[in-house]
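Reviewer 2 asked us to include a model.

Predict the structure of this chain.
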Amino acid sequence: MSARKRLSPSLFLTYAILIVGAIVVVYPFAYMVANSFKTGREIMHAPRQLIPSEPTLRGYEGVFEELNVLLLFRNTLIVAVAVTLENVFLSALAGYAFAKIPFPGRDKIFAFMLLTMMIPGVLFLIPTYVLMYNIGWVGRFEALIIPGAVSVFNIFLVRQFISGIPDELIEAARIDGARETTIFRRIILPLVRPALGTVAILTFMGSWNDFMGPLLYLNRPDRWTLQLGLLQFRGTVPGENAEQIWALTTLITLPILIMYFFIQEQFVKAFANVSLSK
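Predicted model (structure tokens):
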């Protein structure tokens, strides 16, 4: 009997697929970071070369020279954090109501909400802009924060997670005289932490990377976000500002990665435990 355990063909195939998948996922990020340390000439003439031949910080220097990066980070962070907190709180409330609180028309209302996910978001651009203009929110963060407070997908995710919590647990708390707010705060919230962590990641990523919203509503330079800052490096000459574009793209991506590493465990638990049986 061999001291070293031999891999079965199925297990070997599984590891091979996982390794290939990891390479496919990691390579674009490595390529982005490598290009941020190249010159614009090398980016254009040696696009397949991963390692920079002459590493340089010209891209990062150009970004900080031409843009107020700290202001852009602050603006983006204000919007992303506000939208994320709103979404987490409201998704938890709505998910609990649709999963555990019986009220007339509950299932029909929830089904109608799911149907709205079938409507392309681009159809709402003009009506939403007219509304924001009429109430005076164009050029203000409220135009992004308030409409982004609710996500049907996030409510669906939390509702499905809460549906897996035994009804007996909640009924026992009600029999003991606990109010719905107490049940929500002391029982539901601790149990749905993985789902809320997932909602936080998805919402933060969507808000942080949002381009169309800031482009439509934030028409003042002091309110620009990072995505609008990236737009300032567009040029008419191919390859113009290429090093700045890759450098700023890297800076934009780093906060997302840091956030994911902190709560990735909750993210995995949510998708592993969501019950789709109801």
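The mean pLDDT is 86. The chain has two domains: 10-56, 68-273. We have added this to the supplementary material.
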